[in-house]
Amino acid sequence: MQDAGTGTLKRLIDEVGRVVVGQQALVEGLLVGLLAGGHVLVEGVPGLAKTTAIRTLAQALGLGFRRIQFTPDLLPGDLLGTPVYHPDERRFAVRKGPVFAPVLLADEINRAPAKVQSALLEAMEERQVTIGDESFPLPQPFFVMATQNPIEHDGTYPLPEAQIDRFLLKLVVGYPSADDEIAIASRDDLDAPRVDAVADAADVAALQGAATAVHVADAVAAYAVQLVRATRDATHVAVGASPRASRFLIRAARARALLDGRDYASPFDVKRCAPDVLRHRVVLRYEAEADGVRAEDIVASVLASVPTP
Fold first, then answer.
1. How do the residues of the chain divide into helix, strand and coil, expressed in percent and rounded to 5?
2. What is the pLDDT of residues 163-184, one digit of tens each?
3. CATH number of the domain residue 257 falls in
4. 295: which of 18, 89, 144, 241 is 20 to 30 A away, CA to CA?
């Protein structure tokens, strides 16, 4: 099973890499989130292939994909669905919204008001949607990638810490290298490679099961917990990461190990995942901004101070 899973993951990465150039960290981060059964928040300026990456991954997985552009006038019903009255039949029937897709892109989630954000985040947490007096399960798998623009703040509704904490990972996407950007600029979008499905929903379920089965030694689990607890005592931190972060860090380390073809998680897996798991769970004091301290700096100092087993 381990070898079969590794082969499927390699085919997925290769297939997505035919389309997405220079964003390997983003693609691998999305796969870690998917394997760990979580959701991913992505931050980056426009034009960095965030939408292309998630759409291409969905195509390579053989799963349905939908994109929702979040705007200030969006309503929860536009996302979840709504009962529609059929006068000929004299009854209401539920028209399901775009949230009923295995892979969902919530584009610029911070542009929608709190009710819409909460509706999506509840669906992410409960894996079901209630419309009227009926509850409907969401597809399995159900994977959300939400994006937010770090440079535009007018007309936005920042996610509260309690809601942003529900994302397994927060990935920060930077600019590609010069060589990768030349390759991107040289491509003609009209001649974009065709993406073939190299997996299906059953393969995803099997991969998620394999990630859950990855062995985590007691010392590795303790190391993850020590990192999380250290964020609570760090300078400039008002609120550190919660026990949920400890669970998510271990889940992400398992997925990272599987992605690397191993059936055990190492302290190095925990270290690699720590910035993406912890950066959005550390709430800084107001003095931190004046001192130029970022959440990433806190995580880096914690990684440097906690001994590696």
1. 50, 15, 35
2. 788 899 999 998 888 988 888 8
3. 1.10.8.80
4. 144
